[in-house]
Amino acid sequence: MTWSIIARDSATGQFGIAVATRFFAVGARVPHIAAGIGAIATQAMVNPYYGIDGVTLLREGKSPDDVIAALLATDAGRESRQVHVMDVKGRISAHSGSDCVDWFGHISGDGFSIAGNMLVGPAVLDDTAKAYAANATLPFAQRLIKAMFAGEAAGGDKRGKQSAALLIHGTEEWSDLDLRVDDHADPLRELERLEAVSRERWVHFRKFMPTRDNPAGITDRTIIDAAIDAAAKSQG
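Below the sequence we write its predicted structure tokens.
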């Protein structure tokens, strides 16, 4: 009951997933990312273990084709599932079970994969792809949201709107950005607003947090506040 885009930003190496649906709290179940390794979106009659186990398989070095084959092999409900996977090598694989609700399908392009079910029609995916490709100069998060808006304008989920989410990972195991709109009359517009709010302080603060290379991070509030203030001024 969803459409989603998985993409990898060629400039930063970040993986991102954006998703929207007429269903509650889509961000809690659909998007899964292994930083620097790959990403999975599990949808339709969602099976959370496709994300949980699929990320484990990606970490073990399995290809997207092998990941999906392994997930489907143990699931008697596979024909009600939709899942797509992309890895750090740009390889993409997808499955849409025969019992998914029309319209459903999958498309892919240079550095992105898009899948959806219970949609108005194929234009939802096509227009999402066109908008993603056409907005390469936008920052990654904004580019993903812009693509989803195009899919919504083409009809989106044929039942309407309720929730949306954006998940982005860089080099760390924890996310660069994790935004969720669980129940809203205009979830993509709210997601867009939250992304703008994230640029006020969060994206500048994040670089001072602990990393594997710097386990303590930066804790000097003077340094942190000065950097945030400087970033705010540069943004006008």
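The longest helix spans residues 140-153.
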